[in-house]
Each structure stands twice: as structure tokens, then as C-alpha cells.
Design a protein that fits this description.
There is one protein chain. Helix content is 67%, strand content 2%. The protein is an all-alpha fold. It has one domain. It has eight helices and two strands.
């Protein structure tokens, strides 16, 4: 499908459509078809593929630097990796008040992985789809964090760890007590406390996922809107890309910090 055949609305819709397949059988990419790819068993192949690919790049780079690390004059890549590791380590030390060897490597993984996925937003919006179109793939969404399935998966993973460590550190009784005895201390208000604390607990993964998705999806949408204005898009595109120099690492940092904060709260035994 060539750009000349697309209206601005069709162009944007096409670029925001994932490459999907139904886990129970093939489905149609056409939303007006009898069996469109929008059910529960729909798998977003591009989201999975790019997230795994970027995760492998992260592991390969850090493993290579760790194996070749020197105490002498380090290279530029080693300096960059050491700066990231030190930055994450300082963030964990200042925010996490418990003792758990998992928190620092988990925070490093989240920060770098989310940063790499966000950074795909800097790639020109037509470049990757055009390359895959030449290979016969007509849909390719290259920014995994513009897919709510990806951000909710990350957030639910963090939420599962929060519940696990809350029960491990405080016990079942302590965890239930925490949900029922705050903020009101009188026993008659325990049911109210339980509702309020449960809503607060469930809001954490929801806000974590939607904040990351919303910011990156909005950024990608604006890049696509800029691409529809034709020849005059270049200066506007570069201005928005420059603004994204702040947004992309900031969202990775916020996701990492909130993860540390939530896990720190899970380790606090009142």
C-alpha cells in the first residue's frame, strides 16, 4: 500500500496497527473483516519481536563490557555502562530501605530495557515499516512501549513482585493487617480501610502501565502527524525529536523509580 493511496487518517491508522496473529488460528488484519485480529488470543508479533531483540542487545552489550572491563583507562562504552550502573545503584541506595539483592539488577534491567524500547521512537516513522514492506510485511509497529500490552505486562510483573515480597516480609496476617488497619484505626472502619487500600494497591500497576503507554503513544502519534504535513515536516520533526531527548529517558527513569518505591514499601514491616 503506497503512501499516495493513503489519506492522513489512513496513514496514521496504518502505522499504529500492530502485526498480529491469532494464537488459535489466522485472523485478518482488516478491522472490517469477519475475523479481525482483536480478540483475547491475539498476539502482537512486532511488540514481542522488538522487545526481545532490544533485550538481547542490552544483555549482549553489558555482558561484553563486563567480560572486557579493565581497571586501566576504560573505553567509551565501558564508561557509559559504568555511568548507567552507578546511576541506578545510587537511585536504589537512596530510595530502597530494605535488604534485597534482586532490587539493583532488576532496576538496572527495567531502566535500560525500557529506555531502549522508548528510544525506538527516535527512528523515522516510515523507515522500519518500509523495510519490512519490501519483505512482504505490511504492518510493523516498532516502538514496543506504544503497545499497552507491553506496558501492562511490565507493570503486572512489578505488581506480582510487590505482592510476593509483601507476603514474604510481613506474612499473610501482616499483609491483611496493613490493608485493614490504615488509615483509620477504629475496628468499625476496617472494611472502609480495606476498600481504600485495595484500590490504592491496584492503582499502582494501572498508573505505572498507563503513564508509560500514554506518553510514548502520544509522542509517536505526534511524529506521525508531523509526517503528514509533507516537505515542511523536517524542522518540526527535529524540534519534536529534540524534545523527546527529555521524554524518552525520563519515562524510563520514572518507571524504574516507581518500581523501587513500590518494592521498598513492600519490604517495610510496620
Amino acid at each position: 500500500m503506497s503512501a499516495a493511496e493513503l489519506t492522513s487518517q489512513d496513514y496514521i491508522k496504518h502505522h499504529l496497527t500492530n502485526l498480529t496473529v491469532d494464537a488459535q488460528g489466522l485472523c485478518s488484519m482488516d478491522s472490517s473483516a469477519v475475523n479481525p485480529c482483536n480478540g483475547f488470543w491475539t498476539v502482537h508479533l512486532d511488540t514481542i519481536g522488538w522487545s526481545v531483540f532490544l533485550g538481547v542487545i542490552f544483555l549482549a552489550i553489558f555482558r561484553s563490557v563486563a567480560k572486557k572491563a579493565t581497571t586501566g583507562v576504560p573505553g567509551k562504552l565501558q564508561c557509559a555502562v559504568e555511568m548507567i550502573v552507578e546511576f541506578v545503584s545510587d537511585s536504589v541506595k537512596s530510595t530502597f530501605h530494605g535488604t534485597n539483592p534482586l532490587i539493583a539488577p532488576l532496576s538496572l534491567t527495567i531502566f535500560v530495557w525500557v529506555l531502549l524500547m522508548n528510544a525506538m521512537d527516535w527512528v523515522p516513522v516510515d523507515l522500519i515499516p518500509k523495510i519490512f514492506e519490501l519483505m512482504g510485511v505490511h504492518y510493523m509497529k516498532a516502538v514496543p512501549t506504544t503497545d499497552p500490552n507491553m506496558t501492562f505486562t511490565l507493570a503486572l510483573g512489578v505488581f506480582a513482585l510487590v505482592i510476593y515480597y509483601s507476603i514474604k516480609v510481613k506474612g499473610i496476617g501482616g499483609f491483611i493487617k496493613e490493608l485493614t488497619t490504615q488509615p483509620f484505626g477504629h475496628w468499625s472502619l476496617y472494611p472502609v480501610n480495606f476498600i481504600l487500600e485495595t484500590v490504592t494497591l491496584l492503582a499502582r500497576p494501572l498508573s505505572l502501565a498507563l503513564r508509560l503507554f500514554g506518553n510514548l503513544y502520544a509522542g509517536e502519534l505526534i511524529f506521525l502527524l508531523i509526517a503528514t504535513i509533507g516537505l515542511f515536516q523536517l524542522p518540526v520533526h527535529f524540534l519534536w525529536a529534540a524534545f523527546h531527548l527529555l521524554v524518552i529517558p525520563l519515562q524510563a527513569f520514572i518507571f524504574m523509580m516507581l518500581t523501587i518505591v513500590y518494592l521498598s514499601l513492600a519490604h517495610e514491616d510496620h
